[in-house]
Amino acid sequence: MCSLKIKDIGEQGLLKILQKFCPPEIIGDDAAVINTQDGKSLVVTTDMLVDNIHFSENTTSPEDVGWRATAANLSDIAAMGASPLGITVGLGLPGDLSVSWVERLYQGMTECLGKYNAVIVGGDVVRSPNITVSITAFGQVNPTRTIRRDNAKVGDAIVVTGVHGASCAGLELLINPTIGQNLIQADREALIRAHQRPKPRLDVIPILWKILDSQLANHLTSPAGMDTSDGLADAILQICRASGVGAIVEGEKIPLPVAFNNFNNWLTQEEALEYALYGGEDFELVLCLPQQPADKLVRQLGGSAAIVGTITIGSTVILRNQYLGDPDRVLTLSRGFQHFGS
Amino acid sequence: MCSLKIKDIGEQGLLKILQKFCPPEIIGDDAAVINTQDGKSLVVTTDMLVDNIHFSENTTSPEDVGWRATAANLSDIAAMGASPLGITVGLGLPGDLSVSWVERLYQGMTECLGKYNAVIVGGDVVRSPNITVSITAFGQVNPTRTIRRDNAKVGDAIVVTGVHGASCAGLELLINPTIGQNLIQADREALIRAHQRPKPRLDVIPILWKILDSQLANHLTSPAGMDTSDGLADAILQICRASGVGAIVEGEKIPLPVAFNNFNNWLTQEEALEYALYGGEDFELVLCLPQQPADKLVRQLGGSAAIVGTITIGSTVILRNQYLGDPDRVLTLSRGFQHFGS
Fold first, then answer.
1. What's the whole-model pTM score?
2. A96: burial class by Cβ within 10 Å (0-12, 13-18, 19+)?
């Protein structure tokens, strides 16, 4: 056992082992919730990025590295139903990195933070052979108003707050500039922008709480939800597993980027759906709540927000795709077919 | 300018440049203080450690790496006068590192946290070519009860909460086991222990606030202070600079480890003083407060707590060493003589 290596069990395997060192009540959501003495709760989340593993000079400018890392953390704050306060930044940097690279990184971080009234409140800078960026974000939440994964109820509508698949398609276009030649320039740029400058959906939170506050008492419980940083399929499956429920997801109701409609021999509809379900890093929210407030939320959010399915009894998540005439299939974490472009 | 490298300006130079991205009111202390909506303040601090730069397998077990990293962050929380809530841990790990190394790291972290009623509330684990440990600690403080560097007043006594020089001497003994041969075993072990298992002085905070609460109204302002992670000389000089005052430090009043008294040809008194002033990582507190509460604090803390000097008008910090018959000299950030053992 002593010689067991991290590569043998992977990062997820290691995280499971390390959970024994954490209080069990604060594990399993996008961010930890800590009750402070005065009845308010603090929400904390942390992410580490390493050069050549999580980002690359080829696809991501330092400003975009800063924006994306910040957006990912703020998205975790949104996924808990909280309001952001600030972030700390730990930086490991090689001595021969240019100072302007670091300034541009901070520029991207503060641009993103500025849009959501949050600030950099401190950090640490150390020497390291590899560029390493460690961000911890914290926010505030009313303890009776948190979004948790384990709160989905049979009959709830499944709301997604926007399109899926854009970030992954944008990354694909950056890595392989020869693909998608028939895409019009504006669509190509929109996809790339979705990858480089994702928007955490903090705007959804006050709208959501306002709708729920106006509901009758029997709807006053908090919704289930999480963000789609690891993909839409992952988010729906995790919510269902944590809540002990199943779901039916209507494939044709999943909102796709406009560029996906201009297929032009670029993506089949099956491939477009795969991007949407498994692409990841769109940083939208999946929220499960009763039909009436769900309808209201989708209407008030506008844009591409949509109800994509329903929570059901059991534990199976069914993907229904009537548009393609496919039979129902079971939604899993693994893609059903070969990944486009690889 | 574009080609300016980080190694050209150093980490401190880079931090100065990056300050323009942070709100000015939260820069310059051991931790950031953020006012939350309800009148309580959140205190946040972050530290990053990189293998072979901040720790080494030769001198530090994984448990000790975990303990020391945690203690350093909790010390920053104490230095603000706050109570700890928890920490997040970002880990960058090579794939061929053993899982048990990481478990032992967490063991050390939770041992330290357990002593101070704090917990690990989350984190991230990613692949990295180098072991990287990024800890963010947060605590709570009453906004009218924070310890800041810029609050020292002429006439204040300078209190140190314990001995200085032990951690650095312990590290020296680990690196060069041949030195200090005449040290008795218990003294040697105490010094090494001081390096491997430093204790953040969170115990001082409730005692300090209790004394200040019992003072008359004219003493009700908060004290100045910081921790001595970067050395005692550094702490006193930083407080004086931030407060726009000078000081007289009585060299012979600085509490030294017991082992330093058994000189046995190991350390001259001049060298012992140098360890105490410049060694660093003792994680004690330096506090500046009026004479009467300072006396009370030293008495109630017991142990090696002592008043080592007085805040004066001006900007010069004088080191007085009557015991050695030295003339007064100006205390600076650079050591006055060659570092022992190097």
1. 0.88
2. exposed
